[in-house]
Amino acid sequence: MSTEKRNALGKGLSALLNDSPNVNTNNKKTYANPSNPVSELDSLGSVNEIKISEIEVNPFQPRTEFDEQALADLSASIKLQGLIQPITVRKVSAHAYQLISGERRLRASKMAGLTQIPAYVRTANDQQMLEMALIENIQRENLNAIEVALSFQRMIDECSLKQEELGDRVSKNRSTVTNYLRLLKLPPTIQASIRDGGITMGHAKALLAVDDPTVQLYIFQQIIKNELSVRKVEEMVREIQKAPQKKEGKQPEALPYQLQKVQDDLASKFSTRVKLKVNAQGNGSIEIPFLSEDDLGRILEMLDW
Predict the structure, then answer these.
(1) Is residue 9 a contact partner of residue 17, using CB atoms and an 8 Å limit?
(2) For residue 164, with 0-12 CB atoms within 10 Å meaning exposed, 13-18 middle and 19 or more buried, which class applies?
(3) Nearest CA to 102 among 53, 41, 161, 58?
(4) d(CA 177, CA 164)
(5) Sign of CA dihedral 14, 15, 20, 26
(6) Helices 145-158 and 126-138 meet at what angle, rounded to 10?
(7) What angle in degrees, to the nearest 10, is found between the helix axes of 293-302 and 213-226?
């Protein structure tokens, strides 16, 4: 593989995609002839034409949704000009391959009616397969911050990586990795808004300066309602941090799982921290705090008051 191609893949992915000892180093493409298939010795590390029917999708693919219009556009381009960038596969048997990266290209090629597709053949174990799929996913320009954060978390959990190691894999410093991972600590409502483009990464970083999810949700509501800039949100956070903090008393006992789920569902519905209190006799109360008259009006409106 040329230096230019390696740089295009990115530091982390290219490191994982090192050619096997049997790499074709003359940079010349070799193609599989259906009547005289290339041997594994010849095919590893080179570009080969492989039957699409012999390629299995990557079981570790982190992305499950693909833009149908974008696929149709890519398919039209492939029909006109052919597939310019080969996919990457690993060989699992004599006539079977497993996709490592390039599922969009593979899908679009099927739509274009291709029966064969150019592919790099690599050797990779299951963990390397997962890492490569995640890294390719992370390097996509159209990923939102939550998708990146979830991919980072998967690499830490499923590939047993530390944050420093993860940073090396994806060519990002540790503070950047940490900032993305912290997004997953925000309430689900806020995470969904980041994912859908309702608020920016800058808004989210400002919200993370507040520890209380109730306050985070209140500020979030103000961002949406008043279209606040990142700078305005940072000012709100500073004002809140200056206010005297209420001391917490004795922490209540943890709720049973089913009641905890009810409490979480209510908190998500009202976009504020809901407290469910239940005594040994089964009696209790539901507390829905509010941070302003506007916030109270919002909650009362949801209750059809």
Answers:
(1) yes
(2) exposed
(3) 58
(4) 9
(5) positive
(6) 160
(7) 90
Instruction: Please state at what angle helix 163-170 crosses helix 174-182, rounded to 10 degrees.
Output: 110
- Whether pTM > 0.90 for this model: the answer is no
Kindly report the CATH number that applies to the domain delimited by 3-124.
3.90.1530.30
Q: How many residues in the chain?
A: 305
Rounded distance between C-alpha atoms, residue 8 and residue 88, angstroms: 14
Closest residue by Cα to residue 178 from 205, 160, 159, 203:
205
Domain ranges in the chain? 3-124, 257-302
Among all residues, which ones are annotated catalytic? Answer: 103
C-alpha–C-alpha distance, residues 302 and 297, integer Å = 9
Amino acid at 247: K
Q: Can you tell me which residue has the tokens 């049973």?
A: 256
199: which DSSP letter?
S
Tens-digit pLDDT profile for the chain (305 aa)? 444 433 433 444 444 444 433 333 333 333 333 333 444 434 445 678 999 999 988 766 656 567 788 889 899 999 888 888 898 888 888 888 988 878 889 999 999 999 999 998 877 776 777 677 677 666 665 678 888 888 888 778 877 788 888 888 777 888 888 999 999 999 888 999 998 889 999 999 999 999 888 889 889 988 998 899 999 999 988 888 776 555 555 555 667 767 777 887 787 777 777 888 887 777 888 888 777 777 788 788 888 77
Residue 117: its H or E element: strand 116-122
